């Protein structure tokens, strides 16, 4: 069964450093999303991406964040200068408009720890 | 803006029993989707069940079923014959077509022997 994959599973970085979180969505999906979950809290939307551009973003997704689909398979989230409060689990999700439309399938997440 | 409320932070159920998790939401939209996601200790987000708002029939997936009351904006999850592997955090979520998911704060379910 196709699944969303994410790398790395755990990333530790120093405050102020740049990090890139990588995701490979399900191959025939067209909509891509990033969410984050601070430990013990609910899952929060960051950004959605469709047709090679951002379709929606939250207030959390400020200038420190960017997304990119550099090739036909990868979808990345970059945080330019990490802050302590960026420590969270980051989930990538994808969905199709054809098969079971509007159902988002999540990757296993990347745990980001900012020291 | 949509909001999703889960009023039960924690619940406990004995193995083989039935438990119902509550969820209410607020929206002015007429066409939307509702979901329940399960998050075990591994923190993976696993889709449990989905409901289209235009369907009156409640969705069912094996031991999992929902009670969708559109007028009341209520979407509860019933787990029958609870198993130890059902122990997890359960999140209710709302989505308008091709848009973001809005999650509730979750209900931690513990299944005991």
Structure description:
- The complex is a heterodimer of chains A (115) and B (113).
- Chain A has strands spanning 5-7, 10-13, 19-24, 31-37, 44-50, 53-57, 65-68, 75-79, 88-95, 105-106, 110-114.
- Chain A has 115 residues and is mainly β.
- The mean pLDDT of chain A is 92.
- Chain B is globular, with a radius of gyration of 13 Å.
- Chain B contains no helices and twelve strands.
- In chain B, strands 2, 5, 6, 10, 11 and 12 form a six-stranded mixed sheet that branches. In chain B, strands 3-9-8-7 form a four-stranded antiparallel sheet, with no helix packed on it.
- Chain B is mainly β and 113 residues long.
Number of helices of chain A: 0
Low-pLDDT segments, ≥5 res of chain A? none
- Number of DSSP-assigned strands of chain B: 12
Which chains have the largest interface?
Answer: A-B, 29 and 23 residues
General shape of chain A? globular
Average pLDDT reading of chain A: 92
Oligomer: heterodimer
Task: Determine the structural class of chain A based on helices, strands and strand pairing.
Answer: mainly beta
Strand content of chain A: over 45%
Distance between the termini of chain A: 37 Å
- H and E order of chain B: EEEEEEEEEEEE
Q: What is the mean predicted local confidence, pLDDT of chain B? A: 95
* CA radius of gyration of chain A: 13 Å
Reported for the largest beta sheet of chain A, the result is: 7 strands, mixed
Characterize the biggest β-sheet of chain B.
Answer: 6 strands, mixed
Percent range for helical residues of chain B? Answer: under 10%
């Amino acid at each position: 069964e196709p699944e969303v994959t994410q790398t790395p599973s755990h990333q530790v970085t120093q405050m102020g450093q740049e990090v890139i979180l990588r995701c490979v969505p399900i191959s025939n999906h067209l909509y891509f999303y990033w969410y984050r979950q601070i430990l013990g809290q609910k899952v929060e939307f960051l950004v959605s991406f469709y047709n090679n551009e951002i379709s929606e973003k939250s207030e959390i997704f400020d200038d420190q964040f960017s997304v990119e689909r550099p090739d036909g398979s990868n979808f990345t989230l970059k945080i330019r200068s990490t802050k302590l409060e960026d420590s969270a689990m980051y989930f990538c999700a994808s969905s199709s408009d054809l098969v079971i439309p509007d159902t988002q399938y999540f990757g296993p997440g990347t745990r980001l720890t900012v020291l | 803006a949509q909001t999703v409320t889960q009023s039960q932070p924690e619940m406990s159920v004995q193995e083989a029993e039935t438990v119902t998790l509550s969820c209410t939401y607020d929206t002015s939209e007429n066409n939307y989707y509702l979901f329940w996601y399960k998050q075990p200790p591994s923190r993976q987000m696993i889709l449990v069940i989905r409901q289209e708002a235009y369907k009156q029939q409640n969705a069912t997936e094996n031991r999992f079923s929902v009670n969708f009351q559109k007028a009341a904006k209520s979407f509860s999850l019933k787990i029958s014959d609870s198993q130890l592997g059902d122990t997890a955090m359960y999140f209710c979520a709302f989505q308008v077509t091709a848009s973001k998911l809005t999650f509730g704060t979750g209900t931690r379910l513990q299944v005991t022997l």
